[in-house]
Amino acid sequence: MYMLSPKNFTAFLIFCLLLFSSQGYAQTSGSLLAPQSVETTMQSMLSAIQTNSYPDFIAAGDQAFQEGMTKEMLSSISQSLTSRLKQGYTVTFLTKLNQQGFEVYVWKLEFNDRHDDILQFMALRNGKVGGFWLR
Fold it and tell me: Is residue 12 pLDDT above 80, yes or no?
């Protein structure tokens, strides 16, 4: 599992929780699929992590997401995951949850390096990303 420093992880977790209280090298597998527009947004955000592109990462976000996500937060995630993403990965859509007015989509990321998998969550409201986190 990729690790953030305790300080960065806490900040990122708080950021994601606040969003809920306030408002390619990949393959897709599995029998369930998220809507194509949601899959495209998720893949774009993973690509932005891989290239450490802040503008691309926040492009699909709502105002709160864009204002709350910092370049430093993205840089920390990018440093932790870029080498694994570049080696290749498989994305499997797991489910969609309805939580506090958001549609929360959940995927499993399996990396070709065969190390720990990651759960990816992306929260949408009115077609805009309100939260994005990795576990």
Answer: no
pLDDT at 11 over 60: no
- Pairing mode, strands 118-125 and 89-99: unpaired
With beta carbons less than 8 A apart as the criterion, state whether 85 and 61 touch: no
Q: Of 28, 51, 55, 47, which is closest to residue 39 (Cα–Cα)?
A: 28
Query: Which residues are CB-contacts of 87 (< 8 A; sequence separation ≥ 6)?
Result: 25, 111, 112, 113
User: How many domains does the chain contain in total?
Assistant: 1
Q: Cα separations (Å) of 121 from 109, 124?
A: 11, 10
- Mean pLDDT computed over 76-80: 95
Residue 102 is assigned to a structural domain of this protein: yes
Q: Does some domain include residue 1?
A: no
The domain of 85 spans: 6-134
Give the model's pLDDT for residue 36.
96
CATH number of domain containing 72: 3.10.450.590
Q: Which of 119, 134, 28, 123 is nearest to 80 (CA)?
A: 134
Note the pLDDT of residue 20: 46
Predicted TM-score of the model (pTM): 0.76
